[in-house]
Amino acid sequence: MPRDIPTLLHDIFGFTTFRGVQEQVVGRVMAGQPTLAIMPTGAGKSLCYQLPAVALDGCCVVVSPLIALMHDQLRAATAVGIRAASLTSVDADWRETQDRLRNGELDLLYVAPERASGEGFRNLLRSAKVALFAIDEAHCVSEWGHDFRPDYRLLRPLLDEFPDVPRLALTATADAHTRKDILVQLGIPEDGLIISGFDRPNIRYAVHPRDGLTRQLADLLAANPGPGVVYAPTRAATEKLAETLGRGGRAVRAYHAGMDPAQRAANQAAFIASEDMVMVATVAFGMGIDKPDVRFVAHAGLPKSIEGYYQESGRAGRDGEPAVAHLFWGAEDFARARQRIMELEPARQQGERARIAALGALVETATCRRAILLRHFGEDPSPTCGNCDNCLTPPASVDATETARKYLSA
Ligand code: ADP
Ligand code: MG
Ligand code: ZN
To answer: Fewer Cβ close by (within 10 Å): the C or N end of the chain?
Structure first.
């Protein structure tokens, strides 16, 4: 006898209730309706396909952009008794996984878009029973998105070959343009769009011109004893900052994609277990990392986009307790961004310029930061939040504003 959804939610995942739009999304998936779910980081997107994957007869194919992300999810799913596997270049058990798939012994199968869109994988699926296609981090499908991955655009023929299999696309961040693009690219009707609120009221936002970054960060660490993440712009910068900040006596480690994998994994594990560690990292750190009690996130330089900023700062305070997000920026960040744009092919320059202008508006505003963020995601927020630097302490100086304006208009 198949168990019902609330029972599975409790017995497998250990949750008593759904959160936010989860129930609506799971309901649509169970009813076979194509869906694009836009839910903030930490909202619980994984459950929206993992629960149907267990409840439905057949395997849920999950398209995911990063091996590290897949393996984190795989570990978590396996730990609660879900039958899950992945087919990636580092998996040694392909034959076994393929057999399990054909024999109906898998609930979840994780693959990268390159693999999923290939002829070999399509053949494999023809000999299996597929219950659901879940396309995670679906903003990668759009050139308008901040992490464009061309292979996401090749998924459509696979989806269309199995017209009776429901498709669920998920992402944390998609502005109106990107949303539209995801719907079109993945063949999801407009009424399949479900958006949950973007506000993270427990996160206090603050933005500062860089002025002696090391001291600024040291002050931040002193004021925030809980676990924190400092995002630095380059791999070299993460190591250098980690070393400098570590001299203050706090446990500080570095994390970036160029590190020795064993060292990187060790640093990540130490951070997850710690109650006071600071991780100085590139943006490679965070995707799929589930640590609910991160108390602060700092950006040592301008993020790549508002979407990126929202996602990275959103790793703070997933437990709903108070957390802070500090952004440190300098005029040279804008100069560098402009330089980068000029090296791009012309077709991509316009989108990038808009991205940088939106960041300029965020750092230069004298009004509510949260209102700017929420408006960017199409919401209609109240003009003041009472929990950002500008709402708490109306700005006294306009120096930074002038600098930003100069670099934006040049
Ligand atoms: P996302 O992919 O949207 O960023 P995750 O799927 O990684 O979020 O989930 C974030 C956290 O929320 C995880 O710790 C997860 O266990 C937890 N979570 C998900 N759904 C629920 C729920 N219904 N009740 C309580 N916690 C939940
Ligand atoms: Mg996720
Ligand atoms: Zn505010």
So the answer is: N
Say what the ipTM of the complex is: 0.96
**Taking Cα atoms as reference points, which of 122, 129, 123, 194 lies closest to residue 157?**
122
pLDDT, tens digit, 9 for 90 and up, residues 350-361: 889 999 999 999
15 lines ligand 1 (CB under 6 A): yes
255 Cβ contact partners less than 8 Å away, ≥ 6 residues apart: 238, 264, 267, 268, 271, 279, 280, 281, 282, 284, 285
Q: Does the pLDDT value for residue 346 go beyond 60?
A: yes
Give the residue from 16, 13, 10, 35 showing the smallest Cα distance to 25: 35
Closest residue by CA, ligand 1 atom 17? 44
CA distance 25 to 19: 11
DSSP line for 109-151: EEE-HHHHTSHHHHHHHHTS-EEEEEESSGGGG-TTSTT--GG
Q: Which helix (H) or strand (E) holds 230?
A: strand 228-231
* CA distance linking residue 36 with residue 56, whole number of Å: 19
**What counts of helices (H) and strands (E) characterise the chain?**
18, 13
Q: Which ligand is nearest to the CA of 374?
A: 3
Distances (CA, A) of 262 to 85, 164, 285: 22, 42, 15
Distance from Cα 18 to the centre of ligand 1, integer Å:
10
